[in-house]
Amino acid sequence: MTPTPAPPLTAADRPQAPVSPRPTHAVRLHPRSLAALVLVSAVGVVAFGWPFLAPPASQLSAHAEDAPWLFAGLLVLLVAVAAATISESGLGPKAVAMLGVLAATGAALRPIGAGTAGIEPMFFLLVLSGRVLGPGFGFVLGSVTMFASALLTGGVGPWMPFQMLAMGWFAMGAGLLPGRSRLRGRGELLLLGGYGFVAAFAYGTVMNLAGWPFMGTMASGIAFDPHASVPANLARFLAYCLATSMGWDLGRAVCTVVLTVALGPAVLRALRRATRRAAFETAVTFDAPGA
Q1: CA atoms within 13 A of residue 203's CA, in its CB half-sphere
Q2: Which of 225, 282, 263 is nearest to 124 (CA)?
Q3: How far apart are CA 181 and CA 124, in angstroms?
Q4: At what angle do helices 160-175 and 135-153 cross, to 10 degrees?
Q5: How much is the pLDDT for 130?
Q6: pLDDT tens digits, one per residue of 172-216
Q7: Residue 103 above 70 pLDDT?
Q8: Could you tell me the maximum CA-CA distance found in the chain, to the nearest angstrom?
Q9: 149 secondary structure, DSSP code
Q10: CA 11 to CA 13: how far, in whole Å?
């Protein structure tokens, strides 16, 4: 008997090259939520940097003692509006549950290193969470975690809105880093460790900007002077950072890198496994009674 020739392979039968999994977003940013983020970020830049944006003769410099309080009140409203807009645009019940767990964990981690050379384990958790869950979720998580930790530690004050916005920025920045779907292993840890190191110093610097105008005349050599020129105030601010927070920021940066390298692989695997099981982008459905 003559063997029957095998049918030719079709395109569907040919082996396919492996495709990298598409990164899952716990929250997908829509035009309205993007607009809210841009608005709150623009106002935040002004709120942090107004001592260098307003000339000495401006009306804002004339209200140097009132401006930080006005910006603090405005930022509370804007951060709340941005978080609510992002949540409305796609924060489903599974993402809310994940947000609650991670925010509670971060808030519980913050008091561990309070007052100890800048050791803040909460920071590394937010960077890794923003990396896995995306920029929108990262912004909401950073803001909510700082708010919850302030209530837990009694750290409620005019600085709290600035902390919420700054942490939201840096958790969101981790979600914007390249290679979310392809980069894994040592390369990803180096990327996250480097980002965490730089972000730790950046966070300390912008928070210095928030607290610096409150000093008044307590330290005449390094305090903000509303009547001085921008270069003079910049020199005062650099001296203020070196004198008050450089050691703290270095401790935060080193702690973030060490925890990222040591615990990063396990935490990233756990977050990605929880993300796959949650299937954020799959709609939740409920069976009808008797179905």
Answers
A1: 32
A2: 263
A3: 20
A4: 150
A5: 92
A6: 999 999 887 788 888 999 999 999 999 999 998 998 888 787 776
A7: yes
A8: 104
A9: H
A10: 5
